[in-house]
Amino acid sequence: MKVHEMDPSVSERIFDPATADRHASENSIGIVAPQKAHFDTPLAFRCGSVLDSYDLVYETYGTLNASKSNAVLVCHALSGAHHVAGYYADDPSNVGWWDNLVGPGKPLDTNRFFVIGVNNLGGCHGSTGPSSVNPKTGKPYAADFPVVTVEDWVEAQARLADYIGIDCFAGSIGGSLGAMQALQWTLSYPDRMRHALVIAAAPKLSAQNIAFSEVARQAIMTDPDFHGGNYYAYGVMPKNGLSVARMLGHITYLSDDVMMEKFGRALRSGTYNFHFDIEFEVESYLRHQGEKFASRFDANTYLLMTKALDYFDPAHNYNGDLAAALKRARAGFFVASFTSDWRFPPARSREIVKALLDNDLEVSYAEINAQHGHDAFLLDDPHYHALLRAYFDNIKI
């Protein structure tokens, strides 16, 4: 796929939290550095595979108090990582993906909480994943890396908590795929999670959402450079397929109204040219973002993350009864949805809320009027942030 120069003013009109060049927000946590934890205790995955040893990369912000009661786990979404807040000394433009939320005096206040961000297994930002060397073969895991699930991630995160010395979290928070992890924590370890903030979530993917995942995967796997997932051995990357997959995903993260408002039917040259190269500004924007994403993300990781989304369904073993599945939860919950999110619309969050209320659990629910679609959970919405701040302020530590 050819890279097309885009109108710089267009890139500024829609904020893409996954790929935008960002600047640290006011009161940023400042310079941070990732850490790595190594584990030799084998981890059995839900798919039946076992990793004998693995690494998890993580970052922490704030100070763990003497009673270790103020820890909050931030779970990342599909393309996220451990780098939640602050920036790196040697790369100040690499700002954490939730820097507007996490830091001193922010809704998740690091003057009060000890915040942990972790890169999930299967990732491509330092934790063991498909591009990591398999010690049994001396080659990258590639297509042999286990298919991971949300439950597997929570198990790995629990081991990281043990490693850091945290018996019970004050809370966990995540949006989208991260929200599924926050919810799963209350089911896998109900006595180790006091609060869960479940943002822009669904209790399971709809058929339409699974269809989006499958189209994205097919775009990657049919790229001639995919080589069955073993493209590392050929010194190539299925960038075209990954770029198309990301373009598809990106469309679903935005609302139709925002895209129309920002791009409309604006033409780059001001007239129709009757060819298949870029004519509309929105085409230029999507290609630019897709290619930018493909230059920094691993295709096998993208496949794994979308599969984890597809498999998440806590009610699967309860004949589809979500209330029965959530019966073992003990945490307090904050659930938030956004009116323009058509990927995980508010009705899906209300399914979670109803199931929690059916179990007489404490639930706060906010349906936020926002125009930015699914990605609204990453943006600076004063009302949304005020609600998060109020909830965190009421968590006892």
What spatial form do the alpha-carbon principal axes imply?
A: globular
User: Biggest sheet, in brief?
Assistant: 8 strands, mixed
Rg from alpha-carbon coordinates? 21 Å
Distance from N terminus to C terminus (CA atoms, Å) equals 52 Å
Considering DSSP H and I runs of 4 or more, what fraction of the residues is helical? 25-40%
Strand content: 15-25%
Order of helices and strands: HEEEEEEEEEEEEHEHEHHHHHHEHEH
Mean pLDDT: 94
Please count the helical segments: 11
Query: Which parts are unreliable, with pLDDT below 50 for 5 consecutive residues or more?
Result: 1-21
Side-by-side strand order of the widest sheet: 1-4-10-5-13-14-15-16
Q: How many E-type strands?
A: 16
The class by helix and strand makeup works out as alpha/beta
